[in-house]
Amino acid sequence: MTHMVLEVKESLEERCNQILRNMEASLTARDRVGIQDFVLLDPHTSESAFLDNLRKRFHENLIYTYIGTLLVSVNPYKELDIYSKKQMDTYMGVNFFELPPHIYALADNVFRTMQSEFNNHFILISGESGAGKTEASKKILQFYAVSCPSTKLLNNVRDRLLLSNPVLEAFGNAKTLKNDNSSRFGKYMDIQFDHQGGAVGGHILSYLLEKSRVVHQNHGERNFHIFYQLVEGGEEDLLRWLGLERNCKNYRYLVQGDCAKVSSINDKSDWKTVRKALSVIEFSESDTEHLFGIIASVLHLGNIKFDVDARGYATLNNNQEICWGFLIRLKPKQRSPFSVDHAVYARDALAKAIYGRTFNWLVNKINESLANKDSSRKTVIGLLDIYGFEVFSVNSFEQFCINYCNEKLQQLFIELTLKSEQEEYEMEGIEWEPVPYFNNKIICDLVEEKFRGIISLLDEECLRPGEATDITFLEKMEEKIGGHPHFVTHKLGDQKTRKTLDRGDFRLLHYAGEVTYCSDLLDYYSFPVIFKVMRQSKNAIIKHCFPSTEPDSKRRPETVVTQFKSSLVGLTEILMSKEPWYVRCIKPNEAKQPGHFNDVLVRHQVKYLGLMEHLRVRRAGFAYRRKYEIFLQRYKPLCPDTWPNWKGTAAEGVQLLIKHLGYKPDEYKMGRTKIFIRHPRTLFATEDAFQVCKHKLATRIQAKYKGFRVKEDYLKQREAATKIENCWRGLMARKEREKRAWAVKVIKKFIKGFMTRNEPACIDNSEYLAYVRQNYLTRLKENLPKTVLQKDSWLTPPPIMQEVAQLLKKIYIRHMVRKYVRGITPQRKAQVKSTFTCHLCLLFLFFSDLCVRPPQYSVPVVKYDRNGFRPRLRQLIFTQQAAYLVEEAKIKQRIDYSSLRGVSVSNLSDNFLILHVTCDDINKKGDLVLQCDYLFEALTKLSIIVNNQNCIKVVQGSVRFDIQPGREGFVDFKSGQESMVYRAKNGHLMVVTTQCGEMLL
Ligand SMILES: Nc1ncnc2c1ncn2[C@@H]1O[C@H](COP(=O)(O)OP(=O)(O)O)[C@@H](O)[C@H]1O
Ligand SMILES: [Mg+2]
């Protein structure tokens, strides 16, 4: 274990070095512009230094910078090549500071923290309208779509998560002065992950859609995208059915901003995307039919005009009502109970209500398709992309809500970072220099406080008996909250203020700046009368959106703003239960221009986003903290004292653990219940060490398990091997035994033969005597006297060879004498040359073949191999019983005369003879093809011995013979210019002779 810890320590150091090397390597010169993490900013309290760094990096298209784990993003207003699949791969599984800052790094870190700690997270994306929040949230979603494990089922969920975006954007986004694709609703999206990290489902919460946009757009702004998409991109049939013309100008609700066409927006292609997306997120034909029916009906509704009848009531003056009525399956009455003004007001209220409720229906419908039915525990990552703080020249109720929402989120940010951070240090007893920051709680209270807050006052005003107007509401506010430092009206303001403030307006000093609102907030309470009518609609969506169970006028209705307030409380609760991560988006200029960095604008955002304070807290603070128990539980395998079980308190365990890991004193602090780690890199190094260690532990456990499994196999194999070995050994031992027995037998026999060597030949000594004979003959062959004169130097024979030795001596002398005394004719030369060896052969043959009689005749021959007909020099010997073909002292073939079928010779003088034998044994040799210089002599001798003169056959041309039993060969004879023997192409042995004389026997 100690050894393992040492290894881990080493690998930890190595890892740290590697991280540093990676950091170096991954930074190109361009990436080194400024600093990547504001925590390293010097001086960290300087706003100008902060701004300089942002600007420098922005001009190098380095739009991301960290403050610890918070990501600051500056909208580049141009496409950057940093969102490719390759980039995603690069950022997957890599620690924060190993690569240049990126939204993918943040997304990946959130995901991995969720995986390892199995808890819930959310990413709060904030910034003012047009700062890049929605783009950031899309990038994060895309990253998860690519980086998470995928299966067919998961891909399905992934596609729906991704495609829910274009649909929601079509219905909920619009072109504003700030942003061509401004989200006009707040969106909180949960992505649910299973324990393996697969995205298995999702859920969307939407917040207050800016419905006023349906009926009114400021100059330079548009209605929601979907209207333009339908009119521009809708198929001919569809438009005809909806009674629409392909011209936005014809619809009052589309042209008030006077900018139906925008160069940055392609409504036609967006329409196609939406259509496709709708089918992926499971919208049926009838759903889409009803949905577009509603969109078209809103457009028709906008075109309805009213006349006054005699009694002052509004009547319809054109037939648009037929259209919208038809589309939402409603039969409108021709006459209304309203005055014309009232009727117009009611018409718009209806359009807004229809659109707003349809939007909610849409979100629910998308949620149905994203819902994960599996009830096993999931972890979630929430993405909050909510409308940013915004200020227009005229700010109405919706801006009020939007900015209130931003106040709430800022409050949450403060709660979760600045305030809680500092409170935590205090609670944990960690020395701390408090960082001052502006707490916007005072503004939140101004808006939402019970009984005194603006929302309460508004509620009261809307619901009190008697007529409520903008003026009565304003007066009420002046009366109740007039003294509030963040609230001012014309009446309450000083001279300077009065110049910029109309009488009917009021101004709030938000954390992000001053905003002047017109006090027509009273619009926003329900309009029960017209909703009753809607309940009769046959359009399924409308029916669903205006249920008959809706609380009617009998109950005190909730104003829209109160509903919104409650929904924000709900959102805060959702967020507070999760681990927060932040992306702070900054808008570099108001003109949506790439490359323009407006210092004043950015400085303002840096200020109100609280980035400087955040940096200060970060700088002084600790990047990571965890309860001792949790920290110990995770990292205890890294220290031999804490692994596998620690008996003491968690704090003591952690102390031992970090001592073992070599944490330096300034890198951490021990709180009352938590450990605080100053730099992320310390934690990352620890985590890396843990991963190595975990891997090793896993390998050990795995090895143990495998060992257990393998052992069984091994035992079986060993048993089998032992068996085989035993068998083999037995077999070998048996062979050895047999060999020994045989040797003993042979030796015994030899000894017996030796002992009886002088007795007459019998079974006991026959082998021994044969051996003695052969031995003597072999030695004799080697030791023959060189000359006749040396006759005394004859090898002394053993007793049984006395006679034979005498005989041999005689023959030998005769040969030698012949050679020297008589002289030798050239024809006999070959025979003489074979000298004595030949006779020795005969003798050898005689003894070994146990021939009783000596050989009758011997003659040298050339024997032709059966295969390939190669010539070999041999001795042909006839005894009384058989003919022998001998090579030196070796019998090559024995032919019993009884098996001699005949002899073939050719009619030419080629000296060839073929001995035909009967042979049934396939392994025995076949017929003999020989050439003999003493053909006549040899044939005469043979015919005498076998006593059969007819055995010789003279053939002409060709003779067939048996190479071996069953395999035939041929010898072809012919006369020619030159004597030759060769193997012809046809495989026959070709014998060519020069003499033509025929042989006669
Ligand atoms: N990372 C980015 N890269 C390129 N363009 C961007 C990026 N972020 C934002 N933009 C541009 O800015 C516009 C506004 O961004 P958006 O995310 O809609 O702002 P917000 O949601 O904060 O109001 C986008 O339509 C896009 O043109
Ligand atoms: Mg947006």
TrEMBL record:
GO terms for biological process: actin filament organization; actin filament-based movement; endocytosis. It comes from the Eukaryota. Residues 809-995 form the TH1 domain. It is found in: Cytoplasm, Cell cortex. Coiled coil: none annotated. Pfam families: Myosin_head, Myosin_TH1. ATP binds at residues 127-134. Residues 34-691 form the Myosin motor domain. GO terms for molecular function: actin filament binding; ATP binding; microfilament motor activity. Keywords: Actin-binding, ATP-binding, Motor protein, Myosin, Nucleotide-binding, Repeat. Residues 568-590 are annotated as: Actin-binding. GO terms for cellular component: cell cortex; microvillus; myosin complex; plasma membrane. InterPro entries: IQ_motif_EF-hand-BS (IPR000048), Kinesin_motor_dom_sf (IPR036961), Myosin_head_motor_dom-like (IPR001609), Myosin_TH1 (IPR010926), MYSc_Myo1 (IPR036072), P-loop_NTPase (IPR027417). PROSITE patterns: IQ, MYOSIN_MOTOR, TH1. CDD domains: IQCD (cd23767), MYSc_Myo1 (cd01378). Belongs to the TRAFAC class myosin-kinesin ATPase superfamily. Myosin family. This is Myosin IHb. It comes from Amphiprion ocellaris.
